Amino acid sequence: MIYSTTLLSSRGGLIGSLMSKVRQVVANDKGSAASLSPQPASSNDPNRPIAAAGISHSPASQSKTLEEQVGLPPRPKKPLTPYFRFMREQRPKLIAANPKISTVDAVRQLSRSWSEADAKLKDRLQTEYKKDQQIYIELRTKYDSTLTDEQRSEIKQLKQDIVDAKERRQLRKRVKELGRPKKPASAFLRFIVSERTNTPQAPEQTYRDWHQKTTAKWSRLPDSEKEVYMQESRKELEIYRKAISVWEEKMIRLGHIDVVRSGNLIDPPEPKTRKSQAAKVK
Protein backbone atom coordinates (compact mmCIF):
# COMPACT_ATOMS: atom_id res chain seq x y z
CA MET A 1 0.00 0.00 0.00
CA ILE A 2 1.25 3.45 -0.89
CA TYR A 3 1.20 5.99 1.83
CA SER A 4 1.71 9.70 1.37
CA THR A 5 2.92 12.26 3.86
CA THR A 6 0.42 14.84 5.05
CA LEU A 7 1.05 18.41 6.04
CA LEU A 8 0.33 19.44 9.57
CA SER A 9 -2.80 21.48 9.96
CA SER A 10 -2.19 24.95 11.33
CA ARG A 11 -3.69 24.77 14.80
CA GLY A 12 -4.22 27.68 17.11
CA GLY A 13 -4.42 30.24 14.29
CA LEU A 14 -7.41 32.04 15.75
CA ILE A 15 -6.02 31.98 19.27
CA GLY A 16 -2.67 33.23 17.99
CA SER A 17 -4.38 36.11 16.19
CA LEU A 18 -6.24 37.10 19.34
CA MET A 19 -3.11 36.94 21.47
CA SER A 20 -1.23 39.08 18.98
CA LYS A 21 -4.02 41.63 18.89
CA VAL A 22 -4.29 41.87 22.68
CA ARG A 23 -0.52 42.43 22.93
CA GLN A 24 -0.86 45.29 20.49
CA VAL A 25 -3.75 46.81 22.40
CA VAL A 26 -1.71 46.57 25.59
CA ALA A 27 1.29 48.21 23.96
CA ASN A 28 -0.66 50.87 22.07
CA ASP A 29 -3.34 52.23 24.40
CA LYS A 30 -2.73 55.71 23.02
CA GLY A 31 -1.99 54.65 19.43
CA SER A 32 -4.08 55.34 16.39
CA ALA A 33 -6.66 52.76 15.37
CA ALA A 34 -5.32 52.68 11.84
CA SER A 35 -1.82 51.85 13.03
CA LEU A 36 -2.63 48.40 14.33
CA SER A 37 -2.52 45.09 12.49
CA PRO A 38 -5.40 42.83 11.30
CA GLN A 39 -7.62 40.91 13.67
CA PRO A 40 -9.96 37.94 13.22
CA ALA A 41 -13.52 38.68 12.10
CA SER A 42 -14.98 36.78 15.04
CA SER A 43 -12.87 38.54 17.66
CA ASN A 44 -15.93 39.79 19.55
CA ASP A 45 -16.63 36.35 21.02
CA PRO A 46 -16.41 36.96 24.80
CA ASN A 47 -15.17 33.43 25.45
CA ARG A 48 -12.10 33.62 23.23
CA PRO A 49 -9.77 35.60 25.57
CA ILE A 50 -9.95 32.70 28.03
CA ALA A 51 -7.70 30.77 25.66
CA ALA A 52 -5.16 33.58 25.53
CA ALA A 53 -3.36 32.46 28.67
CA GLY A 54 0.06 33.15 27.23
CA ILE A 55 -0.25 36.92 26.91
CA SER A 56 1.74 39.34 29.05
CA HIS A 57 2.08 43.03 29.86
CA SER A 58 5.32 43.24 27.88
CA PRO A 59 5.20 45.42 24.73
CA ALA A 60 4.66 43.70 21.39
CA SER A 61 7.88 43.07 19.50
CA GLN A 62 8.24 45.24 16.42
CA SER A 63 9.28 43.08 13.49
CA LYS A 64 9.56 44.00 9.84
CA THR A 65 6.60 43.33 7.61
CA LEU A 66 6.95 41.20 4.48
CA GLU A 67 6.87 44.35 2.40
CA GLU A 68 9.65 45.94 4.43
CA GLN A 69 11.75 42.80 4.02
CA VAL A 70 11.75 43.28 0.24
CA GLY A 71 12.57 46.98 0.54
CA LEU A 72 9.04 48.41 0.33
CA PRO A 73 7.28 50.82 2.68
CA PRO A 74 4.92 49.10 5.14
CA ARG A 75 1.46 48.45 3.75
CA PRO A 76 -1.59 50.18 5.25
CA LYS A 77 -2.93 48.23 8.23
CA LYS A 78 -6.50 47.26 8.89
CA PRO A 79 -8.37 49.30 11.49
CA LEU A 80 -9.44 47.80 14.79
CA THR A 81 -12.83 46.10 14.95
CA PRO A 82 -15.43 47.50 17.37
CA TYR A 83 -14.49 44.83 19.95
CA PHE A 84 -10.83 45.84 20.06
CA ARG A 85 -11.71 49.54 19.99
CA PHE A 86 -13.77 48.87 23.11
CA MET A 87 -10.82 47.10 24.72
CA ARG A 88 -8.51 49.98 23.88
CA GLU A 89 -10.88 52.51 25.41
CA GLN A 90 -11.81 50.55 28.54
CA ARG A 91 -8.53 48.89 29.46
CA PRO A 92 -6.85 52.04 30.94
CA LYS A 93 -9.86 52.55 33.19
CA LEU A 94 -9.81 48.93 34.30
CA ILE A 95 -6.07 49.01 35.02
CA ALA A 96 -6.41 52.28 36.95
CA ALA A 97 -9.07 50.71 39.14
CA ASN A 98 -7.19 47.39 39.48
CA PRO A 99 -3.44 48.03 39.12
CA LYS A 100 -2.49 44.45 40.02
CA ILE A 101 -4.89 42.71 37.65
CA SER A 102 -3.22 40.29 35.24
CA THR A 103 -3.51 40.68 31.49
CA VAL A 104 -5.52 37.48 31.21
CA ASP A 105 -8.01 38.54 33.89
CA ALA A 106 -8.24 41.98 32.31
CA VAL A 107 -9.09 40.47 28.94
CA ARG A 108 -11.71 38.21 30.52
CA GLN A 109 -13.34 41.08 32.36
CA LEU A 110 -13.31 43.34 29.30
CA SER A 111 -14.84 40.55 27.24
CA ARG A 112 -17.70 40.24 29.73
CA SER A 113 -18.12 44.01 29.73
CA TRP A 114 -18.29 44.00 25.93
CA SER A 115 -21.07 41.41 25.92
CA GLU A 116 -23.03 43.61 28.32
CA ALA A 117 -22.14 46.94 26.67
CA ASP A 118 -24.79 49.44 25.68
CA ALA A 119 -26.09 49.17 22.10
CA LYS A 120 -25.38 52.87 21.47
CA LEU A 121 -21.74 52.39 22.41
CA LYS A 122 -21.41 49.42 20.06
CA ASP A 123 -23.11 51.41 17.28
CA ARG A 124 -20.63 54.27 17.74
CA LEU A 125 -17.66 51.93 17.60
CA GLN A 126 -19.12 50.20 14.57
CA THR A 127 -19.55 53.56 12.78
CA GLU A 128 -15.94 54.50 13.54
CA TYR A 129 -14.77 51.13 12.30
CA LYS A 130 -16.67 51.41 9.00
CA LYS A 131 -15.26 54.89 8.42
CA ASP A 132 -11.69 53.75 9.03
CA GLN A 133 -12.30 50.61 7.00
CA GLN A 134 -13.24 52.68 3.96
CA ILE A 135 -10.10 54.77 4.34
CA TYR A 136 -8.07 51.57 4.67
CA ILE A 137 -9.55 50.07 1.48
CA GLU A 138 -8.66 53.20 -0.49
CA LEU A 139 -5.12 53.30 0.87
CA ARG A 140 -4.61 49.57 0.34
CA THR A 141 -5.87 49.73 -3.25
CA LYS A 142 -3.49 52.60 -3.98
CA TYR A 143 -0.63 50.75 -2.29
CA ASP A 144 -1.22 47.49 -4.18
CA SER A 145 -1.28 49.34 -7.51
CA THR A 146 2.33 50.44 -6.97
CA LEU A 147 3.68 46.89 -6.58
CA THR A 148 5.48 45.27 -9.49
CA ASP A 149 5.01 41.62 -10.46
CA GLU A 150 8.48 40.87 -9.14
CA GLN A 151 7.70 42.44 -5.76
CA ARG A 152 4.41 40.53 -5.54
CA SER A 153 6.31 37.33 -6.30
CA GLU A 154 8.87 38.05 -3.57
CA ILE A 155 6.15 38.74 -1.00
CA LYS A 156 4.31 35.55 -1.99
CA GLN A 157 7.50 33.53 -1.58
CA LEU A 158 8.17 35.05 1.85
CA LYS A 159 4.65 34.12 2.94
CA GLN A 160 5.21 30.55 1.79
CA ASP A 161 8.56 30.44 3.61
CA ILE A 162 6.80 31.46 6.83
CA VAL A 163 4.17 28.75 6.37
CA ASP A 164 6.85 26.13 5.65
CA ALA A 165 8.91 27.15 8.68
CA LYS A 166 5.83 26.93 10.91
CA GLU A 167 5.02 23.46 9.62
CA ARG A 168 8.60 22.33 10.27
CA ARG A 169 8.42 23.63 13.85
CA GLN A 170 5.10 21.89 14.41
CA LEU A 171 6.48 18.67 12.96
CA ARG A 172 9.57 18.78 15.18
CA LYS A 173 7.37 19.34 18.21
CA ARG A 174 5.04 16.53 17.20
CA VAL A 175 7.93 14.12 16.60
CA LYS A 176 9.34 14.92 20.03
CA GLU A 177 5.98 14.41 21.72
CA LEU A 178 5.61 11.01 20.03
CA GLY A 179 8.98 9.91 21.41
CA ARG A 180 11.02 9.51 18.25
CA PRO A 181 14.46 7.98 18.97
CA LYS A 182 17.30 10.49 18.78
CA LYS A 183 19.97 10.04 16.14
CA PRO A 184 23.38 9.42 17.74
CA ALA A 185 26.23 11.89 17.43
CA SER A 186 28.77 11.49 14.65
CA ALA A 187 32.40 10.58 15.29
CA PHE A 188 33.41 14.23 14.88
CA LEU A 189 30.86 15.46 17.41
CA ARG A 190 31.99 12.82 19.87
CA PHE A 191 35.52 14.13 19.47
CA ILE A 192 34.32 17.70 20.05
CA VAL A 193 32.56 16.65 23.27
CA SER A 194 35.65 14.84 24.55
CA GLU A 195 37.85 17.84 23.75
CA ARG A 196 35.65 20.12 25.81
CA THR A 197 36.80 18.06 28.78
CA ASN A 198 40.36 17.28 27.69
CA THR A 199 41.19 20.69 26.20
CA PRO A 200 38.62 23.18 27.50
CA GLN A 201 38.15 26.67 26.15
CA ALA A 202 40.58 29.20 27.66
CA PRO A 203 39.07 32.21 29.52
CA GLU A 204 40.39 34.68 26.93
CA GLN A 205 39.46 32.43 24.00
CA THR A 206 36.20 32.71 22.08
CA TYR A 207 34.20 29.58 21.37
CA ARG A 208 34.65 30.15 17.65
CA ASP A 209 38.44 30.15 17.98
CA TRP A 210 38.33 27.07 20.18
CA HIS A 211 36.07 25.26 17.74
CA GLN A 212 38.27 26.13 14.77
CA LYS A 213 41.38 24.82 16.55
CA THR A 214 39.57 21.67 17.65
CA THR A 215 38.34 21.08 14.08
CA ALA A 216 41.87 21.47 12.77
CA LYS A 217 43.07 19.02 15.42
CA TRP A 218 40.48 16.47 14.25
CA SER A 219 41.65 16.82 10.64
CA ARG A 220 45.25 16.07 11.75
CA LEU A 221 44.22 13.16 13.95
CA PRO A 222 45.59 9.77 12.79
CA ASP A 223 43.03 7.35 11.37
CA SER A 224 43.76 4.92 14.18
CA GLU A 225 42.64 7.47 16.78
CA LYS A 226 39.62 8.54 14.72
CA GLU A 227 38.58 4.91 14.52
CA VAL A 228 37.84 4.85 18.25
CA TYR A 229 35.20 7.55 17.84
CA MET A 230 33.91 6.02 14.60
CA GLN A 231 33.41 2.61 16.22
CA GLU A 232 31.32 4.17 19.00
CA SER A 233 29.28 6.08 16.43
CA ARG A 234 28.70 3.00 14.26
CA LYS A 235 27.64 0.93 17.25
CA GLU A 236 25.05 3.46 18.41
CA LEU A 237 23.92 4.12 14.84
CA GLU A 238 23.02 0.47 14.43
CA ILE A 239 20.98 0.58 17.64
CA TYR A 240 19.30 3.76 16.41
CA ARG A 241 18.36 2.25 13.05
CA LYS A 242 16.62 -0.66 14.73
CA ALA A 243 14.85 1.65 17.18
CA ILE A 244 13.70 4.11 14.51
CA SER A 245 12.43 1.24 12.36
CA VAL A 246 10.31 -0.10 15.22
CA TRP A 247 9.09 3.40 16.08
CA GLU A 248 8.09 4.22 12.50
CA GLU A 249 6.21 0.94 12.13
CA LYS A 250 4.32 1.84 15.28
CA MET A 251 3.55 5.32 13.97
CA ILE A 252 2.16 3.87 10.73
CA ARG A 253 -0.08 1.49 12.67
CA LEU A 254 -1.34 4.39 14.80
CA GLY A 255 -1.98 6.54 11.74
CA HIS A 256 0.75 9.14 12.39
CA ILE A 257 1.97 9.05 8.80
CA ASP A 258 3.18 12.65 8.83
CA VAL A 259 6.05 11.90 11.25
CA VAL A 260 7.47 8.99 9.26
CA ARG A 261 10.26 9.56 6.75
CA SER A 262 8.81 9.69 3.24
CA GLY A 263 11.34 7.19 1.95
CA ASN A 264 9.87 4.58 4.28
CA LEU A 265 6.30 5.26 3.21
CA ILE A 266 6.25 4.93 -0.53
CA ASP A 267 6.69 1.44 -1.94
CA PRO A 268 9.01 1.36 -4.97
CA PRO A 269 7.28 0.38 -8.23
CA GLU A 270 7.68 -3.23 -9.25
CA PRO A 271 10.14 -3.72 -12.14
CA LYS A 272 8.49 -4.45 -15.46
CA THR A 273 9.22 -7.84 -17.00
CA ARG A 274 10.49 -8.17 -20.54
CA LYS A 275 7.29 -9.98 -21.46
CA SER A 276 5.06 -7.07 -20.40
CA GLN A 277 7.33 -4.56 -22.12
CA ALA A 278 7.21 -6.57 -25.37
CA ALA A 279 3.41 -6.73 -25.18
CA LYS A 280 3.26 -2.99 -24.76
CA VAL A 281 5.34 -2.46 -27.91
CA LYS A 282 2.97 -4.65 -29.95
Structural overview:
- This protein is mainly α.
- Helix content is 60%, strand content 0%.
- The protein is built from ten helices and no strands.
- It has helices at 13-27, 66-69, 82-97, 103-115, 119-145, 149-177, 187-198, 207-220, 223-254, 274-281.
- The longest helix has 32 residues, at 223-254.
- It is elongated, with a radius of gyration of 29 Å.
How would you summarize the topology of this molecule?
Elements: H1 13-27, H2 66-69, H3 82-97, H4 103-115, H5 119-145, H6 149-177, H7 187-198, H8 207-220, H9 223-254, H10 274-281
The whole-number mean of residue pLDDT values reads 78
The assembly state of the depicted protein chains is single chain
Radius of gyration: 29 Å
The backbone outline, from C-alpha atoms, is: elongated
What percent of residues are in strands?
Answer: under 5%
> Which class do the helix and strand fractions yield?
mainly alpha
Helix content: 55-70%
- Major sheet details: none
